[in-house]
Amino acid sequence: MKLYPIETGNFKLDGGAMFGVVPKSLWQRTNPADANNMIDMSARCLLIEDGDRLILIDTGMGNKQSDKFFGYYYRWDDFSLDGSLAKHGFHRDDITDVFLTHLHFDHCGGCIQWNKDRTGYEPAFKNAIYWTNERHWEWAIHPNAREKASFLKENLLPMQESGQLQFVNLGSLAPKAMTAVGQKEAKTFFEKSELGFGIHFVDGHTDKQMLPYIDYHGKKLVFVADLLPTVGHVPLPYVMGFDTRPLLTLVEKSRFLNEAAENGYYLYLEHDAHNEICTVKYTEKGIRVDKVLTFNEMFV
After folding, report:
1. How confident is the model over 185-213, as pLDDT tens digits?
2. Could you give the CA distance from residue 79 to residue 90 in angstroms, rounded to a whole number?
3. Residue spans of alpha helices (H) in the chain
4. What are residue 206's phi and psi, to 5 degrees?
5. pLDDT in tens, 160-190
6. pTM for the model
7. In this structure, are residues 168 and 190 in contact, taking their beta carbons and an 8 Å threshold?
8. Nearby residues of 184 by Cβ (< 8 Å), 6 or more positions away
């Protein structure tokens, strides 16, 4: 197995929305804002080369939306999904599986593109299976008012219409009961899926978000998606205003971070524009960041 970081493009979001009830005087220490109160964000995906399979975890925003739409997100840098794949010697037609942590537009927008005549949409990965789970799919195609702007039909329905959509078999992967905030645990709470890596379900940000756990060179790498957007979100109360169930996020973060500190997990940060990976440790103030490192430094 080989892993490759895939940068699909950086953007900006409102810092207040990203940190919820936490005051700016605190969150700006790790995530400084510009004059418009916007902070730097990334859409960092991950490519897994495993035998005959080439699995892409998340796809970024894509490029089919209007200039007005992208104007809200202040995109910056020269990254692109195609450019990042080419850097590692791959093309989007090589992708066999696209695994989606959840179906918000900044995670799945790259799945679908305009067709040749720009009269409709088509899968951007013509040879790939698109993986989500049935519970989250139903949540996304029948969205609540709070998340409706994040679940875009043009990103979702073409997956289904193409026949390339499949659901992860929940089975024994069904979510385990949550524990009290702050309780330390050392129990494994993920199991392997049919894709060859473990999946842990979390529900605080959106229903049935999936976090992949990947065993790689004797270390465990966790793609933390929107449970932990940046290193600035490690302290327990630092929860996004976007989360649909923030109190549940507190419980899920507590359980996950204790697990990560206990077992030395490497946390792959999808949305941190300036930090790729971090580890966490126990301190007198609770779980805090231990090391911040690049993907290549993880294996030095």
Report:
1. 434 345 678 898 999 999 999 999 999 99
2. 15
3. 15-19, 24-27, 67-71, 81-87, 105-108, 134-141, 153-161, 246-263
4. -155, 160
5. 999 999 999 866 555 444 444 444 443 434 5
6. 0.93
7. no
8. 258, 262
